[in-house]
Amino acid sequence: MSKPKIATDWLAACAGCHMSLLDMDERLLQVLSLAELTSCPITDLKHPPHEGVEVGVLTGAVNSTTNIAVARMMRKRCKILVALGDCAVFGGIVNMRNYFDMQEALRCAYVETPSTVDGFVPASEELGRPVRARGVDQVVKVDVCLPGCPPSADAIFHVLSELAQGRIPVVAGETLKYD
Amino acid sequence: MSKVNLKINGKTVQAPAGSTILEAARLAEVDIPVLCHHPKLANLGSCRICLVEIARQPNLHPACTYPVFEGMEVQTESPRVVEMRKFVLDMLFSERNHHCMYCEMSGDCELQNLAYRYRMDRWSFPSPHPHMPVDATRKYFLLDHSRCILCRRCLRACSDLAANHTLGVKNRGADTMICADMDLSFGESSCVSCGTCLEVCPTGALVDRRSAYMGRTAEVQRVRSSCAACSLGCGVELVVRGGQVLRVESDWDRHNEGVLCVAGRFEPLEQTREKITRPLVRRDGQLQEATWVEALDALVSGLRQAAPGGIRAVTSGAVLSEGMNEFVNFFKGKMGVPVHLLEPALAGSELAADGGLKDVDAADFILVAGGDPLASHRVLGYRIKRAIDKGAEVWLVSGKETEMAHFAARCLGLAELDSAVAHCMESRSPVVVYGADLTAREAGRLARLRGKARFIPLAPSPNGHRAQVLGLEPAAGWAGAKALFVLLESALLQEGWLQEFRRPQFLAVYASCRSPLTDQADVVLPALQWYERQGTFINMEGRNVDVHQAVEPGGEGWSVQKLFDRLSGCMT
Ligand code: SF4
Ligand code: SF4
Ligand code: SF4
Ligand code: SF4
Ligand code: FES
């Protein structure tokens, strides 16, 4: 039997969850001996393969129409979808944007920041539109949630190695942390 | 008391009739989660996290309010109960804004702990992210409504423990908000910053500003001690990390029952005075850092030059008993020098100190004479207000304006003391609280109540009782003093304490902080800081209470005992 495939991608995230994934250090090799990593934002191949994967992992909140598209693609191409980190599970720190008016937030980020010169709010057709920030499960069905900001390398190892061996991980005890 | 037999999760339990299911479960060591319940507060039954299943009853019931009955069978973790608890948690988390990753309380939060316990790896309902204000108008702690679960522990603590009735709720349903008075900001409200609400809040809604993010329960040590800021000697727990006191919490098992005042909880850590960490000796008119050997040499020669008749010694009544004993032994016993007390003393040493906070609780009449507990011994003042809430009558006899006057049934001048005494005679269980504003004659008039009433003194200094036992009194004047030794420790010198004081030829001060007095001194000896010292003092109830060292001394300060031990060696 060939090894199960894992793909990861990120949405509106700080990259911390993927850093925590790398924090598994040599245990990454253990995971890779059990499963094949087809794609992730920090490898050359960014997108999950058309033929699909067993496990899809999303980090980050849904924050724009692009995020929605990426989340839907991952959902379509994976059997088990994992929301990894507080942003993916609850919307996390990205939720703070919801306390402000969208235009106000955009102006603040692209025009008013002290380091910005001749700033403007980008409005190209090719770009996604910002939407209210939220967790992944408000857009697509999520099978496994691993909260944490970021989840510890131990927690990520536990979840990925369980999944790679065909088991649904139990997220509890030391593995379950919201901070 | 009659007992009731019941079964909790199949375990047979005998509980006193009238107990709640929660109390019975605790006897059986079954852990039922709670949020609005607090062991020292009246039960409210509002949060519904403690719901349990009772055999043959269609609905779930809150364990914290439901009384036990004979033959009752309770399930505390059945699938139905667990499902309902998760639902309650889901509702609580989706109602406001809980972002544990940057919440001060994360790791110590009762709500978060329950979410972990019930393995909440996601919230079923998205939060609407309501805009919630933060009230940071109080100096020492803030209220972030985003984290408030409306358990109303704070409200009950403020009303029932501190008897201050500042807190209430406004609006209804999802718009319900904790508020102060008639919806004022906390800074403008009647809040007295006792911090009792802060201590009982189960979440990160009420947050201590000074110690925020400085350490979680697992990272700190707790040192049980007594507040020595007034003679009440409230039980405290000093929360310590890395050689620093982060905050002061209360010891719920002591006479103050969890209540502290701003002077005990917050102000001691607001130290703005410069600490004295090394001995100082005046050379060429300038105070300069010196070694202990040099300082002791300077002290010994200063004292010798004034000896035998020119030396005076004075101690603050804030010094702990062990140190005060050494001080008296050395100066009076060994050197034959007159010793005095810095702070004013109570008149009426013939009056007893036989009353305590429990007597206040049980009193039907409380006479407050010549003092204002709400200004000087605040936790006693709160306790008196609590007694008023329960129906006690308070008369105030004072020549001054007082806080207590707002709450007293009658306010009389000192000339009318006799009518108050007469009223006291007719009461069932009276308590007399007397302060330093009474003259010896007025105190004598109160003495008629001995045997009838319990007496609580408002000693002007924390260990004033000990000073009295040692026969220390304020000096009438300082004429003829050539050398003066002041055992000040951390006391803040106040106007009128050193009456007719003129700087003598030689002045030595033992102090933990810089002050105008240490600036004038010839020798300054570094004292231990209040959290570095160890010993006992006699509190207002006449009981010895312990002060424990919370952290290792950070400077070169010596304890009073060590100081006099070494000094004795030098003087022989
Ligand atoms: S109050 Fe408790 S549950 Fe809410 S954010 Fe803070 S730690 Fe998390
Ligand atoms: S502030 Fe704290 S104690 Fe008060 S109701 Fe809110 S959560 Fe409860
Ligand atoms: S600090 Fe004390 S007085 Fe102020 S609201 Fe809290 S309990 Fe009430
Ligand atoms: S009443 Fe006195 S002993 Fe109690 S906390 Fe206040 S200052 Fe300290
Ligand atoms: S703890 Fe029982 S209802 Fe809140």
Could you say which overall geometry of chain A the principal axes of the C-alpha atoms support?
globular
- Please mark out the parts of chain A with pLDDT under 50 across 5 or more consecutive residues, or reply none: none
Indicate the structural class of chain B: alpha/beta
In CATH, the architecture of chain A is 3-Layer(aba) Sandwich
Radius of gyration of chain B: 28 Å
Mean pLDDT of chain B: 94
- Oligomer status: heterodimer
Question: At the fourth CATH level, what is the homologous superfamily of chain A?
Answer: NADH:ubiquinone oxidoreductase-like, 20kDa subunit
Order of helices and strands of chain A: EHHEEEHEHHEEH
Number of strands of chain A: 7
Number of domains of chain B: 4
Give the count of helical stretches of chain B.
16
**Any idea how many domains of chain A?**
1
Strand order of the largest sheet of chain B: 15-14-25-24-23-16-17
The CATH level-2 architecture of the largest domain in chain B is identified as: 3-Layer(aba) Sandwich
- What is the class of chain A in the CATH system? Alpha Beta
Helix content of chain B: 10-25%
- Report strand % of chain B: 15-25%
Note down, in words, how this protein is organized:
- The complex is a heterodimer of chains A (179) and B (572).
- Helices cover 31% and strands 20% of the residues of chain A.
- Chain A is an alpha/beta fold and 179 residues long.
- In chain A, the strands form 2 sheets. Chain A has a 5-stranded parallel sheet, with helices on both faces. In chain A, strands 4-6 form a two-stranded antiparallel ribbon.
- The radius of gyration of chain A is 17 Å and the shape is globular.
- The longest helix of chain A has 13 residues, at 65-77.
- Chain B is of the alpha/beta class and 572 residues long.
- Chain B has 4 domains: 3-77, Ubiquitin-like (UB roll) (Roll); 129-269, Alpha-Beta Plaits (2-Layer Sandwich); 280-345 and 466-571, Rossmann fold, CATH 3.40.50.740; 357-458, Dimethylsulfoxide Reductase, domain 2.
- Helices cover 24% and strands 21% of the residues of chain B.
- In chain B, helix 8 runs parallel beside helix 16.
- The longest helix of chain B is centred in the first third of the chain and has 17 residues, at 79-95.
- The N and C termini of chain B lie far apart (66 Å).
- The model of chain B has no long low-confidence stretch (mean pLDDT 94).
- The A-B interface holds A 83, 86, 89-93, 95-96, 98-99, 134-135, 137-138, 142, 145-147, 149, 171-172, 176-179 and B 97, 99-103, 106-107, 112, 115-116, 119, 121-123, 126-127, 129, 131.
- Bound molecules: iron/sulfur cluster (4 copies) and FE2/S2 (inorganic) cluster.
